Amino acid sequence: MHRFANPTRFLRLAAAVLPFSAAVAALCLGAGLVWGLFFAPPDYQQGDTVRIMFIHVPSAMMAMGVYAGMAISSAIALIWRHAIADLIAKASAPIGATFTFICLLTGSLWGKPMWGTWWVWDARLTSMLIMLFIYLGYMALWQAFDDQTKAARAAAILALVGAINLPVIKFSVEWWNTLHQPASLITMEGPKIHESLLWPLLLMIVGFGAYYLTVLIFRVRAEIHQRRTRMLRMAQADRHNAMQAAD
Amino acid sequence: MSRTFLMLIRRDLLLAHRQGGGSLLAIAFFVLVVSLFPLGVGPAPEMLERIAAGTIWVAALLSVLLSLDRMFQADLEDGSLDQLALLPIPLALVVLAKTIAHWLTTGLPLTLTAPLLGLLMQLSPDAYGALVAGMLLGTPILSLIGAIGAALTVGVRRGGVLLTLIVTPLYIPILIFGVSAVEAAAQGFAISAHMLFLSALLSGTIVIAPIAAAWSLKLALD
Fold first, then answer.
1. What angle separates helix A195-246 from helix A7-34, to the nearest 10 degrees?
2. Does B216 touch chain A (CB under 8 A)?
3. Does B208 touch chain A (CB under 8 A)?
4. What is the pLDDT at residue A186?
5. CB contact (8 A) between residue A169 and residue B166
6. Integer angstrom CA distances of residue A147 from A65, A89, B220
7. How large is the ipTM?
8. Fewest CB atoms within 10 A around its CB: which of A73, A173, B205, B222?
């Protein structure tokens, strides 16, 4: 892990991983979408609206997964002062927030024909909404500091506090109200979804994961380059000042 | 160690007292927000009884939120935060002392005012005990979680708005358990489960929050 605290080494690794993750994302998303939208049979109750699931479920999983990844890299960054872990946490937040938003949006579009309303204060919807707020708070905290090292540590503390709190929020909200159907993909007895719908869904989940990895690499790379440019500019300004002083 | 700890609490209470009006402002805000609701939804007693618990809890939550941004800000501005960090006791204990003082000057007065507001909101007579007990357990958690937010945003531009954005989502479980306790009591159900949950949250936060807040404060002291 510490090998990759060196940005150059990380960039080399990222360059090696990027083609694969991009290819997996393109293939899985393409195949999953075509299969899910055109070839999978409509549900006997829900009809064609069940196809919203192929976007909704993977984005919900990614919304939570990205937060978990963010919390883990924040912990690594706090404990070992790992520079790249900070950048990974920072770069993950907007991606996770977008997944959360897509999940809420598709959920709302699915809720209208199924439950007859765009929004209900159901446990899962509410906890997703709270999660979006936590993502936004995290991103705002990054923005609030001028000093990037301070911002990184403050944001890491917040991400960890949020990670401890999220299960409590989820549990309390679930106790408060429930309309959404319980988990049907990951259960003790195995998936409860028919195979014809399960395979495109799994493809989409893998595709979403690979897409996240691809975008993450782009964002972290951009951040590293941005910091380098900034340092070069500052060095140049220093040289310029020194030359003027010498004149 | 415990002497320093008690001195710190005393110092903050004295400061709050001499600056004047801190608790009174929080209470005034609390009463004002609650009294807006009958004006907004109409004075029908059944309606008020239905929303009483939620209104009182939300207003209490907002009052605590408003009082948070001064928690460490004044000490940072006049430099006493640096002195507090040099004390022979851990910074987490300093934070805990300041949080206790914060609760004594906001959470406790709000809890004592709540029954009066219950009266105004036609709260069912059976529910007063649950309201006060829930707030006694819940408002310290609000101060503790708030301390983390206040420490993270101390010395930050427009820290107040950011503080609200960070802290509010973390307050949701307390709101839910506090309100459901009152509603359970109003319908004649046992409230021990809700109280146990609030106690568990309090015991957890009292350990974690001062440490997290102390870490965050160190950033401002660098």
1. 150
2. yes
3. yes
4. 58
5. no
6. 28, 17, 11
7. 0.86
8. B222
